[in-house]
Amino acid sequence: MMLRSGNPVLRLGTLTFAVLSVLLVAGGTGWPQSAPPALGLQEQGPQVAPAPSTAPSSPPAHEENPGLINEMGKLFDKLPSILPPIKSPSETMNDLSRLAKPSTMVSGRVACPASSNGAPDCKLAADKLCQSKGYTEGKSLNADSAEKCSAKVLIPGRQRKPDDCRTDTFVTSALCQN
Q1: How far apart are CA 143 and CA 167, in angstroms?
Q2: Fewest Cβ atoms closer than 10 Å to its Cβ: which of 12, 13, 53, 146?
């Protein structure tokens, strides 16, 4: 079963437990490695030790070890910069109260005016609907469309032209806020 939590402390604890478990299980001794077999004949000669260096000895520099443990250490070094800061309970409540504004759903029928590109602008219609009910602004929840035609369409034998009818859009319900 996998633990999923939005709490970064629990995620860090779970990750630490998993890493330590892997280290304890894989912490046994390794198998010795032997030199690869050489093809052909080799002459056995005396082994010559390398000459000692006469340079002043300095403390050994930290060598980069490209292993799994080193990479996980790098991850833990970067972890505080990756995680978001932890908020106090009062900051969390302030954020939630800003998001949860009291709102009311109202019903009515207000036509959506045409915007500059010709599409209906139902935000203005939702605002008008909410203002008619005593609220300041609104958001459209439900809309309705109807085709409105001129009386010329009813003349028998007359060909219908593209500008004889238009589609009107209406906001029928909106979510209003003070």
Answers
A1: 13
A2: 53
**Rounded to an integer, what distance in angstroms lies between the CA atom of residue 159 and that of residue 152?**
9
CA-angle at 120, arms to 116 and 123, nearest 5°: 100
pLDDT digits (tens, 9 = 90+) for 125-170: 999 999 999 998 999 999 999 999 989 888 899 888 888 898 999 9
The predicted pLDDT at position 6 comes to 62
Contact 148/165 with Cβ under 8 angstroms? yes
Cα–Cα dist 96/11, whole Å? 23
> Which regions in the chain score pLDDT beneath 70?
1-10, 22-65, 100-101
Mean pLDDT of the chain: 78
Pairwise CA distance, residues 177 & 129, whole Å: 12
Quote the strand ranges of 27-164, DSSP E: 103-111, 137-149
pTM of the shown model: 0.42
- Are 127 and 138 spatial neighbours (Cβ–Cβ below 8 Å)? yes
Q: Please enumerate in sequence order all residues whose Cβ is within 8 A of that of 87, keeping only pairs 6 or more positions apart, or say none.
A: 95
Neighbours of 169 (CB within 10 A): 18
